[in-house]
Structures are given as C-alpha cells and as structure tokens.
Amino acid sequence: VFLMCVYFQVQVTVNGQQVLAEKVSILRNWWEATSFQLERLQANPDCVAQEEMGLSKRTEPNFTLTFNPQEELPLLQEMALPAPRVAVLREEGSNGDREMVAAFLMAGFQVWDLTMQD
Description:
Blueprint: E1 2-6, E2 9-14, E3 17-23, H1 24-42, H2 45-56, H3 74-80, E4 85-90, H4 97-106, E5 110-115
Parallel strand pairs: 4-5
Antiparallel strand pairs: 1-2, 2-3
Helix pairs in contact: 1-2
Pfam family, one: GATase_5
GO molecular function: phosphoribosylformylglycinamidine synthase activity
InterPro entries: Class_I_gatase-like, PurM-like_C_sf
C-alpha cells in the first residue's frame, strides 16, 4: 500500500494499481457526514445544520515557506553535535519522570530512562 498526498489530493496505490485518488476536501466531507448524522440524533438539529454550513465554507490553507529549504539550517548543524547525556532515575510510585524526560529532550539532551531495578 502506497499513500501519497499531492496538491491537497490523496492517492492510494496497492500493488501498483491506484485504488483512490480524491481531493482532501471531499474525503473530509465524507468523513464528517457520518459525524453530522450522529450529532443530529444527540443535539439540536438546527445547531448541527449551522455547524455543517459553517464548515462547508472552509477554504484550503495557503502555505508558504519563510525559508529556503535548500539551505542548511543552523539548527540542523547544532543537532549534529553530540548531545549531553542525562539519566532520569525513576522509582515505583513516582510519576514526574515523563515530564522530566520531555523537558530534557526539549533542551537537547540525550535522555536515558533508568528504573531502580536497572
């Protein structure tokens, strides 16, 4: 199975044969149609109709890059440097280790997760 998204169109190819080629907006509408049918059973149908009408007026985003992707970014050069290493020790019953690991990762550390049994 090969999945590709080109120019806001999803293309799925299985064994070299294209099985799906559709705009993302149409696929999104199909997906949301089921949700709106279920929502009409649970909420005020007038409110659901308003939401559906509002979403039908969406426009596709216009993405533009603010940099030249051909140039090597300074951040990538920094990432190539060896990261400082840190070990996060955790004991049974502790719960702050995930936040600590995330903080160290965001600060650029190479994090080792160790339990007291290690």
